[in-house]
Design brief:
Blueprint (H helix, E strand, L loop, with lengths): L8 H14 L3 E5 L10 E5 L6 H11 L4 E6 L8 H7 L3 E3 L6 H13 L3 E4 L19 H8 L4 E7 L1 H4 E2 L4 E2 L6 E6 L15 H23 L13 H8 L1
Helix pairs in contact: 1-2, 1-3, 5-7
């Protein structure tokens, strides 16, 4: 067994809060051995519930690593929780401001320091009525291409059945199973060294999220949709009117 990655006071504080929250569901982990025991890794995940960060943090921590979350900058302003998030290595994500570039800069630094960075490329809980991943932001592609580290897709399902962030329904009982499934690192060798264009970033982002979507389909035991949900499109309008 490998040694646990060293944390600190705020890591311990986060564990005190996150572990009980994760106990709301019956946790099942599959493919956990694919998370490196040491060294940098970029963990790319779907997002279906406000309970995802506690569940995902506990998953990584139980595997003796410390997750560095990329989270909305507004969360860092929440009393106590914000200090805990910052103190445990959280990376604030700024959108629509001059500080936006610093979000990726901090994530690059964490990866270069050999940390596990966990990112939800959708940027928020999916708005897909069926819970499939939405079309995602391309920051994940920049991180993946600029850092020669394992880029590991992962899917988690079941947390949304406990706490649905959009319907505001909280149903802890009876306890639901929350499954986390990790896939193999995605081979990006064909994309490295190419000029970084918007088209390339979109292609790599969709590739990574297609792996996440396939893992989610495996967990759910359902066929995956052919494309990514985009709020406001014809597909979304058709689903909302049905």
């Amino acid at each position: 067994m490998g040694k646990r990655e060293k944390g600190g006071f705020w890591i311990g504080a986060a564990a005190v809060v996150f572990y009980p929250l994760s106990w709301l569901g019956k946790r099942t982990y599959r493919g956990a051995e694919k998370l490196p025991a040491e060294g940098a890794a970029l963990l790319v995940m779907n997002h279906v519930s406000h309970l995802d960060p506690p569940n995902d943090a506990v998953f990584v921590h139980r595997n003796k690593r410390i997750p560095r979350f990329m989270a909305k900058d507004s969360l860092f302003k929440v009393p106590v929780f914000g200090k805990m998030l910052a103190g445990s290595g959280g990376i604030p994500v700024y959108r629509g401001t001059t500080d936006a570039k610093h979000s990726l800069s901090a994530a690059h630094d964490a990866l270069r320091e050999g940390k596990v960075v966990l990112i939800y490329p959708e940027g928020t809980i999916t708005k897909d009525p069926e819970g499939w991943p939405m079309r995602s932001r391309t920051g994940v592609a920049r991180l993946a291409l600029d850092n020669d580290v394992p880029v590991i897709p992962a899917a988690r399902w079941g947390s949304n059945k406990i706490w649905d962030g959009y319907t505001k329904k909280f149903r802890p009982f009876p306890r639901k199973e929350v499954v986390t499934l990790l896939g193999d690192p995605v081979d990006l060798s064909a994309y490295r060294g190419q000029p970084v264009t918007n088209q390339l970033l979109r292609e790599v982002t969709d590739l990574l999220m297609s792996h996440v979507r396939a893992l989610l389909a495996e967990v759910r035991g359902e066929p995956e949709p052919a494309d990514f949900y985009r709020p406001g499109t014809a597909r979304a309008a058709d689903e909302n009117s049905g």
